[in-house]
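Input.
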Amino acid sequence: MEELLAAIREALDKRGISAAAASELAVGNPSAIKNLLNRRGSERNHPIENLIAVAEVLGLELYLGPPRPKPSNHEKLAMLDKSDESELEDFDLIDRFDLKLSAGPGSNGDNAAPLSPVAFRRDWLRGMYLNAKDCVVLGVRGESMVPTLHDGDLVLIDRRHQQTLSYAYLYAICDIDGQTRVKRIQTLDEGYLLLSDNPEFGVETRFSDDANRVRIIGRVVWSSHKHGTEIAKPPQIEIPKPKRTKKPFEHIWL
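Output.
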């Protein structure tokens, strides 16, 4: 009972509302909370309906039952009120989806269900010239981008359209078969080369009509895997000779 009374007092102070006003809103009786506080040692019972109504007015939960599992860190983030600056004043929440970018054969995007958002420091995003509304967090599956990306890594994708594509960066793409992938992209006059950082994986070509069917989701600007400086430079590649064509292509962004 003491815990219940303490929770009521704390909620009244936090909301800046009097016990009489809260009681009036809850049950139409300005003395309900006063009676509850003054009669804590009394034998008199308080209707459970009144307690539930008071809890709702004060933003509390009246619960009786078996112990409930504690929420995970991601679930805690999802439950935070984004308007409460005291909780997230230094952070932006970026949407995360259950979509795996394949670093390998390809992963279908049909499983793109929303997951708990990921918090990034606002000053870090500003320093990277990123806008949280333009970004999304996705997962990685496969080994073709090792040692830059590993299976299970999370990546932050900047979805703003770029005028040019640079081989120095990684890109999330929707490939010609509808599969979502993460690769380096080398741009040629005839189309694209899709490149892996893992030397065990070969170079893939997307020329002419195939190049026009590639959709670029965005550029990878952060990953959850900490790696060394040995991968700062992209690997050396041998560029295959494409079939010559006069048909133009352009970068197509989602």
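The longest strand covers residues 91-102.
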